[in-house]
């Protein structure tokens, strides 16, 4: 009973999935699960193995070892069943430039097993959903990049798949198009389980609930976006701008003064001008240093121009996790809020 | 079967949406038209000569025009087949649309058969052009149509085999030009292999000659349906499509 309820909940199960080439290992024993209806960000620097993993999930590449299943079907044993339930948008939308939009979507729909009135209904639906109804008769080769991406998305959802796999859906788009695409993806999340890969972090922060970070083919972290951000806030850092009153300031004296403040672990001079300097003050975990820092500056006869928390974005978490070799084991996050 | 037809329709659409199909049709029409005119003129010339010499010998349209023209077509085809098949897979690999096909719920063999069938249909369209010329013979003369039909069957079988080889070569590269050049080289080799039998009778020469796609056309050209030649073409077709399937499979393991 228990196992059956689990399988209905999990849409994608990946166990020790590995892809080896002659000389390199592109994906190295990755395991993760995705629950139904979730929207998951697949994050990693270029060449981390994101595309390879996605290609294995879509049955384009067979894994060297390990298993992956989509909606309960194994990618190696029942590829046709998996393919029926997956909508896939590769990095470059797989379009035929000589085809018109509706002709292309019809072709893909037929390929995915739709026909007759079902196909016509879905065609209208995806055109409306992806806002491409007005370019139905245009040749795909003449469409702009943003529209091609939309047609690519329309193509991926035409057969109403359980799972959507999107490989860098916003790559190469302009900011407006990026926002539109993200909104569209968020919109689709209710109906489909979505995995999207990206190397742009704000995208994950904005669109995803769950993050899977991989680097050099290895799984680095898998967690919810909120937890990861919280983990990043374990150590707080503050930006301090100090100015001398009489028109001169010796940054090294300020630095040593700040370092002596209780609870401060590290001080970095970020910027120097004539009588101004910006420092990044990092505090130890759990200590709240802003008041002491402000007092120390003012008591020494300097002006405190600015004091603000340096926002630790997912970006820094990501860098922390992917740059250090020992980052595999996450420490228990300590949340400190200002 | 439905999927084969879907893929085939799409391929035919791309042939006729781009200038490819029309250029091939026009070039083929021009070249064949010249051959036809040439054959007709020499037929008339010979006819007048034989009458003037007083000993008029029987002249036959099938013998003098249809048979040589059919063997001409079988050779001209060698030059057109690479142009038909070179884009089939190479283009999809280059633009990445192969990922769409390979992640759709269709079998590899359905994709391959669909593409191959489309190339055969385009070749059949080329042959249709030659039929227009032959129609004049039927209007003004009285040739036997049965050998012509057998000849067309032979041409289609031969093209099916070469197109299968071309389809296979197209899966090996992303570059259409490379696919086309290699296919052309192979087609040409498969033609000239037969020439060794002219001076050599050892077993290896006989094997080489047997592999020549043109020698197997000779009986078809005469209007003789020889099952051993038909079997040869069908076997080569199967082999080519089989290699294509293996190549597509290995594409997944390598890429």
Provide structural commentary.
Chain A is α/β, with parallel strands linked by helices. Among the domains of chain A are: 2-85 and 161-231, 3-Layer(aba) Sandwich (Rossmann fold); 234-311, Alpha-Beta Plaits (2-Layer Sandwich), CATH 3.30.70.3190. Helix content of chain A is 35%, strand content 28%. Chain A contains twelve helices and 14 strands. In chain A, the strands form three sheets. Chain A has a six-stranded mixed beta sheet with strand order 6-7-8-3-9-10, with helices on both faces. Chain A has a four-stranded antiparallel beta sheet with strand order 2-1-4-5. In chain A, strands 12-13-11-14 form a four-stranded antiparallel beta sheet, covered by helices on one side. Chain B has one domain. Helices cover 80% and strands 0% of the residues of chain B. In chain B, helix 3 runs parallel beside helix 7 (145-170), helix 6 packs antiparallel against helix 11 and helix 7 packs parallel to helix 11. Chain B is globular. The relative contact order of chain B is 0.14. The mean pLDDT of chain B is 90. The chains are: A alpha/beta (338), B mainly alpha (255). The A-B interface holds A 55, 58-62, 80-81, 83-84, 86, 88, 90-92, 94-99, 103, 107-108, 110-113, 155 and B 3, 6-7, 10, 13-14, 17-18, 95-107, 252-253, 255.
For the termini of chain A, the CA-CA separation is 46 Å
Question: Strand order of the main beta sheet of chain A, please?
Answer: 6-7-8-3-9-10
**Count of discrete structural domains of chain B:** 1
- List the uncertain runs of chain A: 1-8, 325-338
Q: Quick one: which chains have the greatest interface?
A: A-B, 29 and 24 residues
Let me know the number of strands of chain B. 0
Mean pLDDT of chain A: 83
User: Helical element count of chain A?
Assistant: 12
Percent of residues of chain B in beta strands? under 5%
Approximate shape of chain A:
elongated
Mean residue pLDDT of chain B: 90
What would you give as the CATH superfamily of one domain in chain A? P-loop containing nucleotide triphosphate hydrolases
Instruction: Please count the beta strands of chain A (DSSP E, at least 2 residues each).
Output: 14
Structural class by secondary-structure content of chain A:
alpha/beta
Helix/strand-derived category of chain B reads mainly alpha
Largest sheet composition of chain B = none
- Counting DSSP H or I runs of 4 or more residues, the number of helices of chain B is 11
Radius of gyration of chain B: 20 Å
Percentage of helical residues of chain B? over 70%
- The backbone outline of chain B, from C-alpha atoms, is globular
């Amino acid at each position: 009973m228990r196992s059956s309820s689990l399988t209905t909940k999990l849409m994608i199960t990946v166990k020790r999935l590995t892809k080896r080439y002659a000389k390199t290992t592109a994906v190295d024993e990755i395991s993760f699960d995705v629950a139904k209806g979730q929207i998951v960000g697949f994050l990693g620097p270029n060449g981390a193995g994101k595309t390879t993993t996605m290609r294995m999930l879509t049955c384009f590449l067979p894994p060297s070892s390990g298993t992956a299943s989509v909606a309960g079907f194994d990618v190696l044993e029942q590829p046709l069943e998996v393919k029926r339930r997956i909508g896939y948008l590769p990095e470059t939308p797989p379009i035929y430039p000589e085809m018109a939009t509706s002709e292309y979507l019809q072709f893909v729909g037929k390929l995915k097993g739709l026909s007759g009135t079902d196909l016509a209904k879905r065609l209208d639906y995806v055109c409306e959903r992806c806002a491409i109804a007005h370019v139905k008769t245009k040749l795909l080769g003449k469409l702009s990049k943003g529209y091609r991406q939309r047609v690519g998305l329309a193509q991926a959802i035409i057969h109403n798949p359980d799972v959507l796999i999107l490989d860098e859906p916003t790559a190469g788009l302009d900011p407006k198009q990026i926002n539109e695409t993200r909104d569209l993806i968020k919109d689709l999340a209710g109906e489909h389980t979505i995995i999207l890969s990206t190397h742009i972090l704000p995208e994950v922060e904005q669109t995803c609930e769950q993050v899977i970070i991989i680097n050099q083919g290895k799984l680095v972290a898998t967690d919810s976006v909120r937890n990861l951000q919280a983990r990043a806030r374990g150590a707080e850092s503050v930006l301090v701008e100090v100015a001398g009153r009489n028109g001169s300031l010796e940054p090294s004296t300020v630095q040593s003064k700040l370092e002596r403040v209780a609870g401060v672990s590290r001080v970095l001079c970020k910027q120097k001008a004539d009588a101004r300097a910006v420092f990044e003050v990092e505090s130890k975990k759990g200590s709240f240093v802003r008041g002491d820092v402000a007092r120390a500056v003012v008591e020494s006869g300097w002006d405190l121009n600015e004091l603000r928390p340096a926002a630790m974005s997912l970006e820094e978490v990501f860098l922390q996790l992917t740059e250090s070799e020992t980052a595999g084991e996450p420490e228990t996050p300590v949340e400190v809020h200002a | 079967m439905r999927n084969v037809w879907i893929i085939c329709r799409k391929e035919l659409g791309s042939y006729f949406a781009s200038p490819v199909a029309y250029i091939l049709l026009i070039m083929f029409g021009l070249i064949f038209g010249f051959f036809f005119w040439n054959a007709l003129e020499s037929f008339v010339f010979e006819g007048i000569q034989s009458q003037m010499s007083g000993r008029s010998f029987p002249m036959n349209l099938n013998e003098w025009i249809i048979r040589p023209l059919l063997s001409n077509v079988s050779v001209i085809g060698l030059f057109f087949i690479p142009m038909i098949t070179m884009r089939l897979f190479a283009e999809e690999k280059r633009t990445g649309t192969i990922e769409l096909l390979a992640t759709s719920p269709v079998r590899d063999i359905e994709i391959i058969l669909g593409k191959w069938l489309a190339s055969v249909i385009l070749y059949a369209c080329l042959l249709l052009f030659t039929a227009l010329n032959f129609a004049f013979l039927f209007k003004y003369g009285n040739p036997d149509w049965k050998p012509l039909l057998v000849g067309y069957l032979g041409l289609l079988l031969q093209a099916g085999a070469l197109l299968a080889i071309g389809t296979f070569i197209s899966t090996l590269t992303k570059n259409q030009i490379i696919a086309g050049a290699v296919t052309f080289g192979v087609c040409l080799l498969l033609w000239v292999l037969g020439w060794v039998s002219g001076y050599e009778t050892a077993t290896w020469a006989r094997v080489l000659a047997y592999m020549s796609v043109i020698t197997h056309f000779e009986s078809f050209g005469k209007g003789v349906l020889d099952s051993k030649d038909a079997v040869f073409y069908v076997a080569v077709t199967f082999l080519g499509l089989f290699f294509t399937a293996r190549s597509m499979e290995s594409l997944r393991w390598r890429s």
